[in-house]
Amino acid sequence: MQGTVYKSTGSWYRVKSTDGTFYNCRIKGRFRIEGIRSTNPVAVGDEVKFNLQKDGDETVGQIYEILERRNYLVRKSVKLSKQLHIIAANVDLVFLLVTLENPRTYPEFIDRFLATAEAYRVPAILLFNKVDAMDEHLKDETKYMAALYRDIGYTCIGISATTGRNVDQVIEQMKGKTCMFAGHSGIGKSTLINRIAPDLDLKTAKTSEQHKQGQHTTTFAEMYDLPSGARIIDTPGIKGFGLVNMEKEEIGDYFPELFELKSECRFNNCLHLDEPGCAVKQALETGEVALSRYKSYVQMVTGEEDVYRTGMKEDV
């Protein structure tokens, strides 16, 4: 039989077969010894083949093959630094939720996430959430950051998951697509998904006032079908984002504004660090390249903070 993985708990997988029936499945042990250095060899969104067998009175499945992925989003696991964590597979669009307070999303995290999305061919949109709760200073800072990423070519939408402001724009972007929602805990993913699809009634929690960080409500990645034909992948809060399988020579290709300048550098193998005749460094001096983006790039190339952390407790 063939189906799509809708939920992954690490040991059990909920799979929707091609006829629309859901089955609880496990994976064959051989997946763990075939060099798949992943905390979760099978991810939500994967197309898989499985056999059915009896387990007492219940019919369960055994996954024996993962079909080729169109794309996937992956990061290095913080707790198991030698392994990677596949967040989701076969994604048409990822929404990264961003807030500048309660909790704060730092540019380094955004840039690592976007570079990974570029590397693994997943289109990304930035959603600046909680615009209803911002003072004038935060509004100005948010507008500046959104303008920065719009100039690079990313779609940015200011939203309020609580009040519903501009959520219609998110729904419009989602039509007919498998969409993943990502961001830190407490950033409003589940609240936004409930606003888009109230029938799902996902559990939510308020941000901790003491630590200004999110209280984790989504435990496992899970996909949901919407009446519109779109599909939503809800994911656990992400605090650290380590890069996977990126050579330092190619990292600049995943920064669109740096890639655009690459051909103008004196040397075709320029890393945009200390090389003479570097077009990126020149653009940095004139303000054509944002300093925050360049700092993120240098961190990634030099391997500083290989797994970028926000300083908050890690969820996954």
From TrEMBL:
<keyword id="KW-0690">Ribosome biogenesis</keyword>
<feature type="binding site">
    <location>
        <position position="272"/>
    </location>
    <ligand>
        <name>Zn(2+)</name>
    </ligand>
</feature>
<keyword id="KW-0963">Cytoplasm</keyword>
<dbReference type="InterPro" id="IPR030378">
    <property type="entry name" value="G_CP_dom"/>
</dbReference>
<protein>
    <recommendedName>
        <fullName>Small ribosomal subunit biogenesis GTPase RsgA</fullName>
        <ecNumber>3.6.1.-</ecNumber>
    </recommendedName>
</protein>
<feature type="binding site">
    <location>
        <position position="270"/>
    </location>
    <ligand>
        <name>Zn(2+)</name>
    </ligand>
</feature>
<keyword id="KW-0694">RNA-binding</keyword>
<feature type="domain" description="EngC GTPase">
    <location>
        <begin position="89"/>
        <end position="239"/>
    </location>
</feature>
<keyword id="KW-0862">Zinc</keyword>
<keyword id="KW-0342">GTP-binding</keyword>
<dbReference type="Pfam" id="PF16745">
    <property type="entry name" value="RsgA_N"/>
</dbReference>
<dbReference type="InterPro" id="IPR027417">
    <property type="entry name" value="P-loop_NTPase"/>
</dbReference>
<dbReference type="InterPro" id="IPR031944">
    <property type="entry name" value="RsgA_N"/>
</dbReference>
<comment type="subunit">
    <text>Monomer. Associates with 30S ribosomal subunit, binds 16S rRNA.</text>
</comment>
<keyword id="KW-0378">Hydrolase</keyword>
<keyword id="KW-0699">rRNA-binding</keyword>
<feature type="domain" description="CP-type G">
    <location>
        <begin position="81"/>
        <end position="241"/>
    </location>
</feature>
<dbReference type="InterPro" id="IPR010914">
    <property type="entry name" value="RsgA_GTPase_dom"/>
</dbReference>
<feature type="binding site">
    <location>
        <position position="278"/>
    </location>
    <ligand>
        <name>Zn(2+)</name>
    </ligand>
</feature>
<comment type="function">
    <text>One of several proteins that assist in the late maturation steps of the functional core of the 30S ribosomal subunit. Helps release RbfA from mature subunits. May play a role in the assembly of ribosomal proteins into the subunit. Circularly permuted GTPase that catalyzes slow GTP hydrolysis, GTPase activity is stimulated by the 30S ribosomal subunit.</text>
</comment>
<keyword id="KW-0479">Metal-binding</keyword>
<comment type="similarity">
    <text>Belongs to the TRAFAC class YlqF/YawG GTPase family. RsgA subfamily.</text>
</comment>
<dbReference type="InterPro" id="IPR012340">
    <property type="entry name" value="NA-bd_OB-fold"/>
</dbReference>
<dbReference type="InterPro" id="IPR004881">
    <property type="entry name" value="Ribosome_biogen_GTPase_RsgA"/>
</dbReference>
<keyword id="KW-0547">Nucleotide-binding</keyword>
<feature type="binding site">
    <location>
        <begin position="129"/>
        <end position="132"/>
    </location>
    <ligand>
        <name>GTP</name>
    </ligand>
</feature>
<feature type="binding site">
    <location>
        <begin position="183"/>
        <end position="191"/>
    </location>
    <ligand>
        <name>GTP</name>
    </ligand>
</feature>
<feature type="binding site">
    <location>
        <position position="265"/>
    </location>
    <ligand>
        <name>Zn(2+)</name>
    </ligand>
</feature>
<dbReference type="Pfam" id="PF03193">
    <property type="entry name" value="RsgA_GTPase"/>
</dbReference>
